[in-house]
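Notebook, p. 212. Picked up where the previous page left off. The plan for this session was modest: take the two constructs that came back from the sequencing core last week, fold each one, and keep the raw output in the notebook itself so nobody has to go hunting through shared drives later. Recording the first one now, exactly as returned: residue sequence, then the structure token string.
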Amino acid sequence: SFHIPEHSLPSYRLALELGADYIEPDLVPTQDGTLVAVHSVDLNTTSNVHTYNNGEFQSKARQSEANNNEWGYYVNDFTW
């Protein structure tokens, strides 16, 4: 993660180039079953989803028991 953003194809390639024995991606399914490589299911931690396109997705904000009832935007509420 020092050289390249985590959970991206370039980071997986670099890990292999550096001799990693295996890669363990964090995969989370979207509402329609598309797998997304992302460390946190709450998109607030890695994106600007709350302000994207003048707040287009504000209605998707919710609390999640899986995230200690924190408000957020969760991958599994979106479709590809």
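Okay, moving on. Second construct, recorded in the same format:
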Amino acid sequence: AGAIITKIDVSCRAWPLECLLKLETALSRAAPTVQILQIDDIIASLPTDDGFASLGFFNRIFPPSASPKIHTIDLSDNALGTRALLHIPDLLARPGLER
């Protein structure tokens, strides 16, 4: 049995999709036990479409069905607008989300 991961913190770095894809297996394995997802300031320096792709990655890896324990998601400093919210509906649609 491996360690139980309760917090993922990839904040304050630009994460283009090609980099995130290298972490997909590890993040998918951790998703069921994650309670805090810190993805603040990860897209602000990326071109718009690249930032949306990165947000879509987290939306796909951490939907409520795969990560039911998440109660905190930090999306600050990502220059999110209404268009960005279209890329993370599953990430935000979870009961018990505190912030």
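Notes on construct two before I forget. The helical segments are 17-30, 48-61, 82-85, 89-92.
Flagging for discussion at group meeting.
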